[in-house]
Queue: 4 jobs
Job 1
Amino acid sequence: MSDRLHTLSGYLYEYQKSIAQPEEFWSRIADSFFWRKRWTKTLKWNFQEPDVRWFEGGKLNITENIFEKQLFTLGETPAIIWEPNDPHEASRTITYRELFEEVGRFANALKAKGVQKGDRVIIYMPMIPEAAIAMLACARIGAVHSVVFAGFSSTSLADRILDCKAKVILTSDGNFRGNKKIGVKAVVDEALEKAPVETVIVYKRTGQEVFITPKRDFWWHEVIEGVSSTNKAEVMDAEDMLFILYTSGSTGKPKGVVHTTAGYMVYTKYSFENVFQYSPGDVYWCTADIGWITGHSYIVYGPLLAGATTVMFEGVPTYPDAGRFWAIVEKHKVNQFYTAPTAIRALQAFGTEPIEGYDLSSLKVLGSVGEPINEEAWHWYHTHIGKGKCPIVDTWWQTETGGIMVSPLAGITPTKPAYATLPLPGIQLCIVDSEGNELTGNGVEGNLCIKFPWPSMIRTTYGDHERCRQTYFSTYKNMYFTGDGVKRDHDGYYRILGRVDDVINVSGHRMGTAEVENAINEHPKVIESAVVGFPHEVKGQGIYAYVICDMSNRTEDNLINEIKDTVSKIIGPIAKPDKIQIVPGLPKTRSGKIMRRILRKVAEGALDSMGDTSTLLDPEVVEKIIEGRK
Ligand code: WT7
């Protein structure tokens, strides 16, 4: 059964209802799921602690809502269509029945390896169906998955293993990306030196040589050999942990965002159906990686809960050429296509030639996620990909929100370039000024908060509840603070303006400036560093690092390359600074605080609007930084 809205007035009516009577509203939506036991209390909440519980008393398994509930009607329907990196390799179509069997089999294999309800399992895998099977198998037996993007370094992986005390890692021998074959198990081996686990299961994807440590490492195909596909789902409490996903914040190491079972399930399905207006038989494709929340909610859980056919792509947009996305749209007759502005801008740079000759007439809806989409990219997407007939859903949300919060409903909400438009039913947005006063009415700009719980919201940060409270619930009383700036225009439409904290968004990947600084500081010649974001044509934001170094025995170029390598090694290539400027000093206040405002201005080249520099300890340093600007 679908809870899809069909008209603008229907949306407005539902929205009002969802605000006036949230518990009744979400109860009705939740009633269409399969519960082992119905919940007793729809919502209990308190944003001070924070303590938020949805559907308490309810018992269920999310995979029973994907499989058992739908198999009768969808058994032979494709659940996943997988497109490999190499267009000459065959794609794979996995029906709901086949996926159910594979999930059951792997769930049994995990159990046989001693994985129990509540154990943490890290998934460090390429974009292959087995990654989704791994997630669902964990959910099936009540183990908590934590997917780590396979582009992260061994150090990042080790940090996450230690933080969540993982028992098992699921991985692959290697990963095909473009014309590269990348070692994956080798990275795991390195991480395990610092952060050991009991068991590693390795899927053979590239066939490259790997080290197998007896009694710890096992081949995927061997652990499932002869294993039954019949698996009885673990009965979970509504608020049992479903997964942990690490994300960057403005301070310290990445934190493990915790999502729980029932609320996440209800919200991802509901938002998927409504935003994308998915109809049975459609083919939906989200180009994200399962290492990010977009992959969790809108490649795996949302679409599969809605009985959709979801495309999974292993490769990159420019291999073998810049027409690959469009070749895939044509090949699988994709109806809904969901990607990031950075990908659109990267492809835009190749002009329209790579699109020519491909039949994109199957497309009905285009989606955007991860960062603000600039008007130029919006128009290019609309005109050249959507041929002017596909609505664009610019979806604003976060790892912490679990699902899409602000977005047009495709074909229903009138769109406006660069606007995420209106909140989904159940989402109570609030704009506040820096003192926390709510700015009411239209034509206002401020910090974006959410003042009422929604089912898929973050419950805690793993192992450190206080950090969750501090980060999201302490800035403004009784509100969840998103970290984003926002404008509500005269029509009441929302436009996201970007982060107002020390988080930068590089190609839709979230990065903490402190995290990058810590990595830079690991280089033995680095004395101090400061990192800021700057506008970047393709990536949205680039990383600009100001670094004070001991220059003995080094040329500037050498040092810059070494620092880039250090960051790549410690975090991963996605965190590599675009620009590194060696500076004699950093602009600091008398109390020793780095004035990032000034560094941001220099990085973006706004040299005439530097503002007041008189409170600086050493105002001359600014002159020198401007002179050496990259
Ligand atoms: C941050 C969250 C949500 C999945 C991918 C990113 C930015 C996300 C939009 C959008 C403007 C956006 C925000 C947000 N962001 N979507 N449509 N328009 N900004 O998840 O890694 O948790 O990052 O991405 O700044 O806070 P994430």
Job 2
Amino acid sequence: MKLAKRVAALTPSSTLAITAKAKELKAAGHDVIGLGAGEPDFNTPQHIMEAAVKAMYDGHTKYTPSGGLATLKQEIIKKFQQDQQLDYKPSEIIVCVGAKHALYTLFQVILDEGDEVIIPTPYWVSYPEQVKLAGGVPVYVEGLEENEFKITPEQLKQAITNRTKAVIINSPSNPTGVIYTKEELQALGEVCVAHDILIVSDEIYEKLVYGGHEHVSIAQLSPELKKQTIIINGVSKSHSMTGWRIGYAAGDADIIRAMTDLASHSTSNPTSIAQYAAIAAYSGPQEPVEHMRQAFEQRLNIIYDRLVQIPGFSCVKPQGAFYLFPNAKEAATMTGYENVDAFVEALLDEAKVALVPGSGFGAPNNVRLSYATSLDLLEKAIQRIEWFISEKV
Ligand code: PLP
């Protein structure tokens, strides 16, 4: 059957593609080290799982309001007050099936055919596809490596046209791990307010920040910026709950109402028991979040120092999330590959290390490594990459 035009141009997630190939090799008996993971390698904390089990036995196994349980919205509101000193009303919050679905629903309700969304590169793989699925046009602005992959207000200004509807800011960033400072956000925010551009602030890695760096939400910086911003967040990365699929959006009540109407005809609601689990995640002890953060920070510091010793690799030091995004162009050239994609493919075939090529993130000279795996495996992976390079030069 002929598929809809809408999906003809859809590219499958490159992150999932490499993970699938690594799994295939593993199933065939190869000792593959996968560094493609986009999720914490910790179990969901015990008290959260217990809350979900209790919810089930208490009979909370029915439909919930489409925008999420009132109690969960209250917990999210409290979280915004505590962490960002931001006040939202329940009508300004929607709980979705993960942050990914919150973004998808948002683009569906704000974009008309041909509306442009500014996406800084390197970007998270789903942004362009989601924009296109909503009839929008992604407009890329290059975050230069020498500027820690961040875009400047001048670059933003230059990308704006009379079709620009929104800009996405993802800080801490997947794949680079860099964090915009308060001053940088202020300067970008001024451009958005002046041109009345909606800011989509994806703060899913908010809790994973290192080296004394601070996460600031652009919505915190002024009442005008709060009005101009939709915050996207969730419990997937902070509480190691990727499979539970709970994320949310906060901002303008009209946008949230439209998103809720759309959800009422698509998902009906996020899974009831997962919502109870998310209530426990926010209302319960936060120590597990900090323990996971510390474990990631320790790995980052050890692995970053090792990574930059690999011949032909250079890397901007990440400040958050759980990815390293080294430039491997020189390594690819040294070893005789025409580009980094080919280098990554050979690395998987010959050294059995799965990295994600940066081309899927709009940065073809880079590769993404996730350190959401044990230090032992990380060290082993680096040794294999070093071996692979030394064999070829
Ligand atoms: N935004 C970014 C930048 C991500 O990296 C991810 C997950 O990989 C998401 C959003 C989606 O998270 P969720 O599991 O809540 O859908």
Job 3
Amino acid sequence: MRFAAGSLPGVPRRRDVLPVRRPLRRLTQLTMLFATADERSGAPIACTTSRTAAGATMPTAIADSDVLLVVDVQNDFCPGGKLAVPHGDEVVAPINRLAGRFRHVVLTQDWHPPGHRSFASSHPGKRPFETVAVDYGQQILWPDHCVQGTTGAEFHEGLQVPNAELVLRKGFRPTIDSYSALYENDRETPTGLAGYLRERGLRRIFIAGLAFDFCVRYSAEDAHREGLDVVVIDDACRSIDVDGSMAATRQVLATLGIRCISRAAVA
Ligand code: VGL
Ligand code: ZN
């Protein structure tokens, strides 16, 4: 099965997404082709970046009102883990370096109770990566992963982000999955992060981590919907790539005008 952009299983399509007015930039916005962050596919990621009239890529300077969101850099998403993302551990060192340059950093942690509804093992006769219909749409069934209190749910031991201000746990409600750091998969139940960012005056969010095509993607979409300026640092992400999910993610991000930039372009 292939999933159209905006209609991945586990997340219903929103009908109330309003276009957010982006500030007019003096730079020309061009859609560029970048090397993919996922070495399995070899396909390029279509990204939007900022270029000067002369054609030089403008680095994006980190400001005090920016936050780096580090998504789910946990053992179970790394090689050897229960839901290993290919090359997932390769994001650790780049994220450590990036995080030290941000004034504000938030970490997310996928944090499921045993027997979570998103686990294939909770659905007799179902196997991981099959889908089931749930209240909020189609849900991909995953191998048991990131179970609360287990080693698999811990951050990768190499992750060194001492300046992180908040660790946000998500996916702890037994019957609903939560890919996004802002809303659970019904796209209505808030995690509280949008309010936190708003109250703290953090208006631009850079996103890195695992997995590009699930938790990074939905965090980026929801942050954009909240009116935040969103930047995905694509070479500090890796993808699961289930049934075209990585291509669908590229398409959605490009359609929404969410910038994907490389680490090198973060000044
Ligand atoms: C994730 C699938 C299930 C992710 C979490 O972090 O992208 N994917 N739970
Ligand atoms: Zn999960």
Job 4
Amino acid sequence: ALQLTLAVIKPDAVAHPLISEALHQTILENNFVIVRRKDLVWRRQDSERFYAEHSERFFYQRLVEFMSSGPMRAYILAKEDAILQWRDLMGPTKVFRARYTSPACIRARFGLTDTRNTTHGSDSPESARREISFFFPDFSVEQWMEKE
Ligand code: CMP
């Protein structure tokens, strides 16, 4: 079915013009429709709120720090099966595993560390809805779906 997903180009990737351009091209080449796009910088509390589910994990502080360290680029992407399609392009969360198991994926090509892993993508329709409204509070998934 046609789905929306939230794709985020994280601060490590936005910082490098060639990498953010390559990721934009990857989105286009894979026939995603770019529904919305926005550049933004998180305050520390945005980062803490978005990743609250990880607050007990050992990497939480470094994750929060990193995600509020500089500009990000967020996309709402539409495609058949968009959520899984984008996650497949990103590859595994852990960059070193990604390089070993799927060297062509985004994180294997551009990721720096398990935290600074270039991109985020929603993992379910429920999280896509939550994350889209977190990044794009004025966007209504229901309204967009009705128009399509
Ligand atoms: P993301 O897909 O945005 O979801 C949670 C983030 O936490 C993840 O990408 C990484 O940036 C970070 N992360 C997940 N696991 C680890 C880990 N083992 N070590 C460091 N950072 C991690």
